[in-house]
Amino acid sequence: MKVNRRAVAMAGALVIVGMIAGMLSVVPVIEESNFLALIPAHENQVIVGAVSQFIMIPAYVGFALCLYPTLRKVNEALSLGFLGFRLIAATFHFIGVILLPLFLVLGQEFAHQGAAHLETMGELLRAARDFVNHVALIISLGLGDLLLFGMLYRSRLVPRWLSAWGLVGAGAAILASVLVLVGVTDVVTPVYLAINAPLALQSLVLAIWLIAKGFDTRPWTAAHERVARRA
Predict the structure, then answer these.
(1) How many Cβ atoms sit within 10 Å of the Cβ of residue 76?
(2) Could you tell me what percent of the chain has a pLDDT over 70?
(3) Distance CA 195, CA 19 (A)
(4) CA distances to 90, 155, 200 from 62, in Å
(5) What is the SS3 assignment for 158?
(6) pLDDT tens digit string along 149-175?
(7) Cβ neighbours of residue 227 under 8 Å, at least 6 residues apart?
(8) Helix, coil or strand: residue 28
(9) Taking 60 as the threshold, does the pLDDT of residue 228 lie above it?
(10) Do 26 and 78 meet the contact criterion of CB atoms below 8 Å apart?
(11) Domain ranges in the chain?
(12) Torsion-angle region of 172 (φ positive above 0: left; ψ -120 to 50: alpha; else: beta)
């Protein structure tokens, strides 16, 4: 199997870019109880959050595109599924970007009117953003990651312990989103963050591995040679 070493390293770099952008996309003021009153004084937080989340779109999709030429040789159907879930996640990212400027509009209106109905709209908007970012987006990414790490585990392009770690982490992330969906936990809570921590740490380790070592095609090639000899 021929592997584009530069593309694999680029995929690892994009993971790190996405993680940094993800941290910058957090908008602390929106988590405050009286966030509408505080937003006019913290507009920069909202703008930085929107720009950062927009950067995550090419980072997440670019990661899949960089790996696709290699993954399709392992399993074309699963690799297309992985890419498809990344594109779905990119759509939810874009929706998240669009929602953030609406907070600025509501914050400015609230500063002038202070009407109770604006508070209700603000709560609905915040709930919509949470469901987009922490339920729909994470579930679509998680399902794609299950396909990715399943392929990597089978092909041994990276060590199996790293792929197994990714499978467990992706499953845990999906579970965390389901718990948010059914109201068992809220976002940005110790429980939610703890459940997502394994995948976050695994993503960093995977990124470093891809940059430093890339894919190891020897186990995959040896397995196919054995199958060819038996045939």
Answers:
(1) 11
(2) 94
(3) 17
(4) 10, 22, 18
(5) coil
(6) 999 999 999 999 999 999 999 999 999
(7) none
(8) helix
(9) no
(10) no
(11) 5-230
(12) alpha
